[in-house]
Amino acid sequence: MTNISRLSKKIAAIAESATLKVDAKAKALQAEGRPVISYAAGEPDFPTPEHIVDAARRALDDPKNFRYTAAAGLPELKRAIADKTARDSGWAIDPSQVIVTNGGKQGVYQAFQALLDPGDEVLLPAPYWTTYPEAIQLADGVPVEVFAGADQGYKVTVEQLEAARTDRTKVLLFVSPSNPTGAVYSPEETRAIGEWADANGLWVIADEIYQNLTYDGVRAVSIVEAVPALQDRTILVNGVAKSYAMTGWRLGWMIGPADIVKGASNLQSHLTSNINNIAQRAAIEALTGPQQPIEDMRLAFDRRRKLIVEELNRVPGFRCPTPEGAFYAYVDVTAALGREIRGVTPTTSLELADVILSEAEVAAVPGEAFGPSGYLRFSYALGDEPLVEGVRRIQALLSE
Prior knowledge:
Blueprint lengths: L2 H4 L2 H4 L5 H14 L5 E2 L11 H11 L14 H15 L8 E4 L1 H13 L5 E6 L4 H8 L3 E6 L10 H7 L4 E7 L11 H13 L3 E5 L15 H4 L7 E6 L12 E4 L2 H14 L5 H12 L3 H21 L15 E5 L16 H12 L1 E2 L1 E2 L8 E5 L4 H15 L2
Parallel strand pairs: 1-10, 3-4, 3-5, 5-6, 6-7
Antiparallel strand pairs: 2-8, 7-8, 9-12, 11-12
Helix pairs in contact: 4-12, 5-12, 6-7, 6-11, 13-15
């Protein structure tokens, strides 16, 4: 019996996270002494702000944090999340509508588990975060990709969504700002999509993890603020990982109507129980404490965003729209394919990424991880010096 056949079919079908795989490969090469610059991981390079860390230190002195707490989260944290949701998403919720999860990724997983029955279809705008289709399929749902390329600013239209809708469509996944593209839907675009979803009786799962990382005066309007009628059929997913540089703290949340939250809470009570109490205390401080350190990080990302877009657009065959949110640049590299590079002629973005890693010692994630081939994702959540050095290595390689 092979190793694969020993696994259940569902688990055997799960693909490894492509972003983590590329990042692991880059780190392995770095461990060998190679000067690899990695744009792979979607992780701020800043330390967690000190006042948040101090709150965790204080929590360690209180023995009540060493005990089980409510599976859905500490009441004080759920109140802070409710206040943030009212402030940033325009939805006045009760704290009972909040479930605190092990990172936003668990929130995504539980949202699909709560809504999907076998065969239910989910409209999945592409390019998409690599975990979404896996989470949908783990819930026995069917992801239906709806692709928007660089010519559309990586944003799908109502017409595209309608063309993909069938009588089995139950959920629309809406992500703004986007990972991997950094695209932000305008208030008008968000309203149009929300009204279409409402008119067709669809559920919406809105991942708002990058909600507070926007630039050029752009605001990521929540779909439940744009179309309040959707509040009874929407689940919001969010967390502190990206805006607060707290990826390793594993603290996210999901928000929804009372019956959905009750079902998801039952699931979590058997899956993980309560989230680490020290991380919960730190998250309370993150949401309610000083926000200037968070704004300082956003301003640094903004500076890097402008820098990397300028440099990427100087690479022969690269076309990089300017992202308005998150910390990713998503590059159309189709014009760079089919050219010989040091004896290799890549025809896909996966092959191009391999050439760039081996020849320029630069790691980027290929478009195949997020949908169609022909693209590379660069995270600019790294220092200014390596950010520029890595792109200039690519410039030199593709200019040969």
